[in-house]
Write a structure and sequence with these properties.
Layout lengths: L14 E3 L2 E3 L2 E6 L4 H13 L2 E11 L4 E2 L6 H11 L3 E6 L5 H17 L4 E3 L6 H12 L4 E3 L7 H10 L3 E8 L14 H6 L13 E7 L9 E9 L3 E8 L5
Parallel strand pairs: 3-4, 3-7, 4-6, 7-8
Antiparallel strand pairs: 1-2, 4-5, 9-10, 9-12, 11-12
Length: about 250
């Protein structure tokens, strides 16, 4: 029987603590579709303290793919549909600058701020500079960051991810850190055992990125098929995934 997450998807349900009724905080979730993002969402939902207003993802509008991960928009949308949460796509131009990114992200965050959202949950684990940068940008619009995986041991976290029933496939590999043959592999105990000791098991330093297609936050698996692996920018290996879903 598939694990159910239904009790924590009841939007706006009050909680009881010490005999008092507490309202869930409505938050935005920074969603990449990868494993750390998925496990962070699992932790957020399991806590029972939050109502997720939407999954926010940056998408390159020219390539129609998730930024960095290279996953097709259609697969991203199937993920959100299976999870049962709204998807907020932040569209970026083909060759976007840092200013393009900051401006479009700020516009999206301001929209949710006006709707009463004051916090964004993020799946970062240990990169101090990155967390500091995110918190500074959020503070500019009077928002806060929530980091449910912060300072967790990445070896233990990677095994928890697998043991909890999450399933992911590697979509991008940094050739400076890892052999390109790891692209397209399923993220499981064998994958973790094969990683060089210099590579973080969660890929927190950008060694690899992933697409999660099943797990306890999903109502049903996201069907996909693996295509060719391409080498880009003389550095990155991208395994192309496409959907097996046939439009009605």
């Amino acid at each position: 029987m598939r694990p159910t997450m239904s009790p924590i998807f009841n939007s706006g349900n009050p909680l009881r603590a010490c005999g008092k009724i507490m309202q869930k905080e409505r938050i935005l979730f920074s969603w990449s579709g990868g494993k750390d993002s998925s496990f962070a969402l699992y932790e957020i939902l399991q806590s029972g303290r939050y109502e997720v207003a939407a999954l926010m993802t940056t998408v390159n509008e020219y390539y129609d793919r998730v930024s960095l991960h290279g996953v097709r928009r259609q697969l991203l949308e199937l993920q959100a549909a299976s999870i049962g949460l709204p998807l907020e796509k932040v569209m970026l131009p083909k060759d976007f600058s840092n200013d393009d990114y900051e401006n479009r992200m700020r516009s999206t965050l301001k929209k949710y701020y006006e709707l009463g959202v004051r916090s964004v949950a993020i799946g970062d684990i240990f990169l101090e500079d990155l967390r500091k940068h995110r918190e500074e940008k959020l503070a500019q619009i009077r928002m806060n960051g929530i980091f449910p995986l912060w300072k967790r041991n990445t070896k233990a976290l990677s095994l928890e991810f697998v043991n909890f029933g999450f399933k992911a496939v590697i979509t991008c590999v940094d050739g400076h850190s890892l052999d390109g043959s790891f692209a397209g592999r399923v993220y499981d105990e064998k994958f973790l055992a094969d990683l060089p000791g210099s590579v973080d098991p969660c890929g927190e330093n950008g060694e690899f990125h992933s697409f999660v297609f099943d797990g306890p936050i999903f109502n049903e698996p996201v069907a996909y098929k693996t295509g060719e692996t391409v080498f880009r920018d003389n550095r990155f290996y991208f395994c192309d995934l496409s959907t097996t879903h046939q439009p009605v």
